[in-house]
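Lab notebook, bench 4. We co-purified these components, and the gel suggests they stay together. Before we commit to crystallization screens, I want a quick structural picture of the whole thing.
Request: model the full complex, all chains together.
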Amino acid sequence: MTIMIDTGNYIAAKAAVMAKPDVVPAYPITPQTTLVEGIANYVGTGEFKGEYICVESEHSAMCACIGASAAGSRTFTGTSSHGLLLMHEMLHWAALARLPVVMCNINRVVGPGWNIWTDENDSISQRDTGWIQFYCSSNQEIFDTVIQAFKLAEHKNVGLPVMISYNAFILSHTSMPVEIPEQQVVDDFLGKYVPQWKLDVDNPITFGNIIGPSDYYKVRRAMQDAQDNAKKLIPQIAKEWKQKSGFYHGDLLELYKCNDAEYILLAMGAIGAESKVAIDEMQKKGIKIGLARVRTFRPFPTEEILKLGKQADLIVIDRNISIGLEGALFTEVKAALYGKSDAKVHGFIAGLGGKDVPYTDVETICKKAIDGKAKEYEWYGLEEA
Amino acid sequence: MKKYDVVTTISYPKIGAMGKTGSWRVFKPIFDKAKCVKCLRCWIFCPEASIKREKDDTISIDYEYCKGCGICANECKVKAITMEREGEKK
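Here is the predicted assembly.
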C-alpha cells in the first residue's frame, strides 16, 4: 500500500490503469482533460500496456469503447458535460448491447452560457440510458469505485456499463491523500475478464441487427433485471473490497449518523461530503438529523429510501434541475415513498452553475425545513449576487 | 456454434433468417459467363453471400436470396453482370 496525494482525475487515471483495461479511447474536455492525460502519461511510463486511442470526438470515443468491448476487451474512458451529451446515442447503444464499459464523468455544467464549474445536469440527463450511475464524494471513493465498477459491470448477472460521476474541480482538480493498494490486490479482486458475448471469427455472430418487437421487449426487460441484480451486488462488492483494501464508502446509500434521526438529509456527490460537517454541527446543537448520501442514482435505492421515510422526515438537496418539474433526486425520493410513508419531504435546488454550497448553507437549508419555514420545494440562494 | 446466455441484440448465422429475400428484388443481376474473367470481385463484394463460386472460378447467382442491390454489377470490370428490371426482359 502507498499513499498518493493527487487530484481526483489523476487518482481516477491511476485506478483505471490498475484495472488493466485493454482499450482506452479518449477525447479531452475540461475538466476531464487531466484524467485522460494521466492515462496517456502511463502509456509513456509503460505502466499502461493497453491500447490508447486518440479519437476525434466523444461520440467516437464511445463508439470505439463499444467496438472494443464487443470484441471482448476490458474498456475504459472518461468525459464531461458536452462530451457526455455528444455520446448520448452511444450510451444507449452500449447499455442495450450489454457491454460493460466503465467511464468516469466529471460533473460539469451544460452550456450555454459557457461555464466549466460543477452541477449534475450532464449525467442526470443520461438517467434513462441503462447505465449504472455512481456519484462520488472524495478522491479515495473515486479510486475504490472505479475498481469496483469493473467488477460490477463485468459480473455475469449484470453486464451493463457503469458511469462514475464526480464534481468538476471540487474533486477533479483537488488533491487529497488516497491509499493505493498493491497491484496484486486489484488483480485478485477483479480476476480475468470473461465477456458475456463477443465478436469472434471462430464463432461468428452479428450484433445490432434487426430485432422484432417481442425480442426487443425481452432485451429491455433483461436490462431491468440486470439493474435489479446490480442492486444486490453493489453491497456485496463493496464488502469484498472493504476486506481487501480496508475502504468502504457505503452501498447504494452511505448512511451517516442516521440512528434515531428524526430528519434525514439526502444529497449526492461532493455536497454529500460537505453535509457531514453540517450534520455534526447540527447534532452538537441537539438536532436529531442524519445524512443519507445517495451513491447510486441507477439502480435507484428505492427500498433503502423507503426505510428512511418510515423513520424520519426527509430533506433533499439537488444539484440538478429537471426543468418543468423539480430536482431529479427529489422527484424520485417521493416516488420511493409513495403510498407507503407519511414522511414530509422537502426539496431544495442548490449549487447550480457551480455555485458553492458550503456546510453552512447545508445547515441553513436543513434548519429552514425543520423549522417549518421552507416550501415543499424551493431554490436555495437564488437571490444572492 | 456457441450460444451466449445474455439477452441482447446478437444473432447467429443462419440461411434465410429474414425469409426469401429474393422477393424484395426490383433489379435482377444477369451473369454472362462468356465475358467473365474469373476475378471473383462480385463474389468478394456481395454483401449477402448470394454469389456462389463455381469450381472453374466463374460464378452463379442465388436468386432465392439476392436482393438485387447491384453491387456485383458495379464491381464487375468487364460488365459480365448487368442489372435488368424484374419482369422486363431486354
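Chain A touches chain B through 21 residues (CB under 8 Å). Worth comparing against the SEC data before the next meeting. Chain A has a mean pLDDT of 97.
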